[in-house]
Specification:
The chain has 462 residues and is of the alpha/beta class. The protein contains 23 helices and nine strands. The strands form two sheets. Strands 1-9-7-4-2-3 form a six-stranded parallel sheet, with helices on both faces. The protein has a three-stranded antiparallel sheet with strand order 5-6-8, sandwiched between helices. The protein starts with a helix and ends in a 6-residue tail after the last helix.
């Protein structure tokens, strides 16, 4: 058993029976789900929009190479610089080159899952550079020394009292501060960082090839401040965030807001097309976009699973997943969690080490039902499971168990011959440490259904 799956099982066991953790998580998810229902009311034909957006993302992924070149050409013409990073290490080293050139000692960072994916904060800390998260949820998580818990809401597992206690311990504030007062404390601290920072980082919700730009959507304004004050702006974005045109935003921005937070549209929506021009007062003097692959090309090559690259990172599949709602975000041990994370992580980080994530699903299909882009998520999880088996990422005991199960299911004699007591002993011995740990053990009936039917209908032919 790999270290990753062993850790996953340990954390899952702990979180699944942590009543307080589950209470906080379900409360916060419930709040989001209620707002999403209202947000969907802005559409007269939501299914039409979902199908249209899926077709759009299909078109982009099938021609991704052309759109990437188009973006690089137009963004460079706007005065920006494009860097291609094959993996995490390449992205880190390219970033370090820029920061050393700028003699940077402190940077600010807007919310970005791509920078989490390359472990940017830890890498910068190792190189003597302070990185400050400016999104409120990310700021809370950074103070607590934790990774983001949720794609959209990094501190979803924390209550107001948890945050108050954290601020008291780390910032010396009073324990009885209200939510608004806690927010103002964070605001005061972060405002100073924007002015002091040498470089600002952000991710991107979408890449716009036709105008050579990137689009960011947010609710706090920290994205604009993190990218507007520092003289250098570095964007780290996965190549799958590509759209076909700036005109696509008319559909994508409201759809992302509706499914992510239940809003008609988020508060701040910004397009960056390069460093500031001579006639502009605000903005960075230099702007870099790091196009991150890091396993995405591998996933793109999978004809069945490449559909996962259509994801717009709204987080709705996490909120709908019964497994996520039981074990929480940190249990997965990966940047991307929930159903979408369980699909893409094995392709980004290696099937052998992360195949277990694709089994962390009830296959109920709720994730597919709530996906704004109509990604067939539960089917993709099955494709991953099949791929793991085809590649031989199974243990001997697992292979033998399935062979025996198949042989038993295909043979009436094998099903009927053993007595109920033998079945009870055999099955309960096998499952006593898994099923039996929390549930009543199996008890087979003295007579099988087939035997009972023959007794009740003795003269009926087979």
């Amino acid at each position: 058993m790999s270290t990753n799956i062993h850790t996953f099982l340990q954390k899952a066991e702990q979180k699944a029976f942590d009543a307080e953790h589950k209470r906080k998580l379900l409360f916060n998810i419930g709040k989001y789900n209620a707002t999403v229902v209202n947000g969907k009311k802005q559409y007269t034909d939501l299914e039409y929009v979902r199908k249209k957006v899926k077709n759009l993302k299909w078109k982009v992924m099938e021609n991704l190479d052309k759109y990437l070149i188009e973006f690089e050409t137009n963004f460079t013409a706007n005065g920006g610089k494009v860097i291609w990073a094959n993996d995490e290490k390449e992205a880190q080293q390219e970033i370090l080159k820029i920061l050393k050139k700028k003699e940077a000692r402190m940077v600010v960072k807007a919310k970005s899952m791509a920078t989490e994916e390359i472990h940017l904060n830890h890498f910068l800390e190792q190189n003597g550079i302070q990185s400050v998260e400016t999104d409120l949820g990310e700021y809370i998580q950074q103070l607590d020394g934790e990774a983001p818990y949720h794609i959209v809401t990094p501190a979803m597992h924390k209550s107001k009292d948890d945050v108050a206690k954290l601020f008291h311990e780390k910032l010396g504030t009073s324990l009885d501060l209200t939510a608004q007062e806690l927010t103002l404390v964070a605001r005061k601290n972060l405002r100073e960082k924007y002015i002091q920072a040498d470089v600002g980082f952000s991710g991107a919700n979408f890449i716009l090839p036709d105008i050579g730009g990137i689009a960011i959507t947010e609710n706090e304004g920290n994205g604009r401040l993190s990218t507007g004050f520092p003289k250098t702006h570095i964007v780290v974005v996965g190549i799958e965030k590509m759209l076909s045109s700036v005109n696509d935003l008319a559909m994508l921005w409201p759809l992302l807001a509706t499914y992510g937070t239940g809003q008609k549209v988020t508060v701040y929506n910004t397009i960056f097309t390069g460093p500031k021009k001579e006639i502009e007062v605000d903005g960075p003097e230099e702007m870099y976009v790091i196009l991150l692959d890091n396993g995405r090309s591998h996933l793109l090559a999978q004809e069945k699973q490449r559909e996962a690259l259509y994801c717009i990172r709204c987080g709705s599949c996490l909120n709908a997943c019964p497994v996520y709602k039981n074990i929480g975000g940190h249990t997965y041990g990966s940047t991307y969690t929930g159903p979408i994370g369980s699909i893409i992580t094995p392709h980004f980080k290696g099937m052998e080490e992360f195949k277990h994530l694709s089994n962390a699903s009830s296959l109920c299909g709720n994730c597919t039902e709530v996906c704004p882009v109509n990604i067939d998520l539960h089917t993709l999880l099955l494709y991953n499971r099949n791929e793991a088996v085809e590649e031989g990422h199974t243990v001997f005991a697992e292979r033998i168990a399935w062979k025996l199960w198949r042989r038993s299911m295909m043979s009436r004699k094998a099903m009927e011959k053993p007595s109920a007591s033998i079945k009870n002993m055999g099955v309960n011995m096998l499952f006593k440490n898994s099923w039996g740990k929390r549930r009543t053990m199996f008890k087979f009936a003295p007579k099988s259904f087939n035997k009972r039917w023959q007794e009740l209908h003795p003269h009926q032919e087979d």
